[in-house]
C-alpha cells in the first residue's frame, strides 16, 4: 500500500467523508487517488477559499470535510477562515503542504514557508506536522485538536434540550455548570450520591415513558457505578439519553486521574446493550452530533471529550435538596 492510500484510509477511519481542495505537487499521489476513485466524491475547487466554502456546506449537510491546499492558499483563505469557519464554528481538516520549509524551494514559496507556523498561530488554528513514520498518531492528534471545556460542552448540550425535558445531573461541577447556564425546575441536581445519576434516570424513564429523560454524567461518576449501564441496557427505555462529559479526571476534587483514558465508556455501554453510542472529540463534532443524537430511539449514550479544569468563580446550586425534589417532582407529574 502506498503512503498516499494509507493516508486516505486513515482519514476515512477517523470519520472524514468529504474531500475537496486545490492540488499541490507535494501531495500529488493523494490527489491522483482522489481524482481516479469515484468513491471519494472529490470536488476540485477553483480556489482555496472556494474549497472552504464547499467544505462548510458539506459540514452543514452532515459530512466531516477535508480541504487540501498548498500553503500559499492559506493567504487566499484568510477571510473565509476567520469570517466563515471561525465565527460559525464550522470545522474542517486542512491538509496543507509546507512549501518553502527551511528555505528550500522556489522564490515564491520562501516567505510563506518561513512564516507558516507563525501564521497558523496568529489565526489560532491548531496544527500538527504529518510525518510518514508517525502518520496514524499525527492524524489522530489533529482529529482531537479542537477541544472544548466542560462548561462550554454542558452549555451546548443544554441549548439543544427543550426546558421541559426531565434531566438528572450528576454531583460535582457538571451540576453547577448547568445550574449557572440554564436552570429549570425540570433539572434535578445531585449534591451527593456519586454514581447514581444513571440509576435515578432509569427509574424515572421507566415510570415516565412519555417523557424524554436526559442524564448528564461525568466519567468518574459512571465508573463508580458501571453496573448501571447493564441495568439501562436490560430495561432498554426508548426515552433514555445519557450524556457523559469525559476529561479523564475527578474535576471537583482536584483533577485526579480516572481510568477513562484506557476504558472507553461509550464502548462499555455499547457492549452492555445501549442501542446507540457516539463520541464527540471537539466543539464542532459535538454540535454536529447533537443535531441527530436526541432524534433517534434510546437508550443512547453520547460521550463528549472535554478539557480538564473548572470555570473560575462558578457558584453552587442554590435551592436546598428538598426544594430541588419538590420542584422537580411537580415538573415530572404536573
Overall description:
- There is one protein chain.
- By secondary structure, this protein is an alpha/beta fold.
- It folds into two domains: 3-143, Thiamin diphosphate (ThDP)-binding fold, Pyr/PP domains (Rossmann fold), CATH 3.40.50; 150-333, Rossmann fold.
- It has 14 helices and twelve strands.
- It has helices at residues 3-13, 28-36, 48-60, 72-88, 107-122, 135-143, 150-159, 173-182, 197-207, 219-224, 227-235, 265-272, 283-293, 321-333; strands at residues 18-21, 43-44, 65-70, 93-97, 166-169, 187-189, 213-218, 240-246, 249-250, 256-257, 276-280, 300-305.
- It has a six-stranded parallel β-sheet, with helices on both faces. Strands 2-1-3-4 form a four-stranded parallel β-sheet, with helices on one face.
- β3 (65-70), α4 (72-88) and β4 (93-97) form a beta-alpha-beta unit.
- The chain is elongated.
State the main characteristics.
334 residues, alpha/beta, Rossmann fold, 2 domains, four-stranded parallel beta sheet, 14 helices
Overall geometric form? elongated
What is the third-level CATH name, the topology of the largest domain?
Rossmann fold
Task: Give the rounded overall mean pLDDT.
Answer: 90
The strand order across the widest sheet is: 6-5-7-8-12-11
Number of helices: 14
Terminal residue distance: 63 Å
Q: What is this entry, summarized?
A:
The chain is elongated, with a radius of gyration of 23 Å. It has two domains: 3-143, 3-Layer(aba) Sandwich (Rossmann fold); 150-333, 3-Layer(aba) Sandwich (Rossmann fold), CATH 3.40.50. It contains 14 helices and twelve strands.
